[in-house]
Amino acid sequence: MALAEISARIAAAERAAGRPEGAVTLIAVSKVQPLDRVVAVLEAGHRIFGENYVQEAAGKWPSLRERFAGTSVHMIGPLQTNKAKTALELFDALHTLDRPSLAEKLARLVQIRGTCPELFVQVNTGAEPQKAGILPDQADDFIRACALMDLPVAGLMCIPPEGEDSAPHFRMLAAIAARNGVAGLSMGMSGDFESAIAHGATHVRVGSAIFGARSYA
Ligand SMILES: *Cc1c(COP(=O)(O)O)cnc(C)c1O
Hints:
217 residues, TIM Barrel, 8-stranded parallel β-sheet
């Protein structure tokens, strides 16, 4: 299946970049995919998945997690503040910490729960008005503010503008991470994950190249 091919391409990209084998975590983005395709990838042994919608994940993952031990699910879509509590119950990682109000809400919930998911700050590297994320020139302050709220920032995440070369955006994200002492870089999708790995991605989010095209019908 395509999973094996993508895993092999990731390994080759790691080698080409002079990075250790296994340096990059593959997040299989299963949003909107039919259940049989998701189960096939689980049966092939993959255990790390990405979802965009709280509701969809809530309907799918609790039972799949019972069937397939050791599965982790990452939230990679925009998160409404009023769904933050449910998200903490569902997800092991959150890639879309994109605004102060969400950070404040998460900080309160994390204190009560006593556990924190792996957190990635989404940076709007293209400064696109319709796109979520902290603007690049505000990222340093936001990362510092999260730390002051006892929210450990594990990494940064970006979605480069469509139809543009992703490389400058990957470089920008890596530079923001480096100057803030942040280790994780969630960047690269089906069309550009090899370039992302060359630029230091620690997590790539690959959907259609593994599962096939999404049908939103
Ligand atoms: C859907 C999605 C992906 C996966 O996209 P593909 O092009 O199918 O690999 C990755 N990241 C985010 C944030 C997404 O919403």
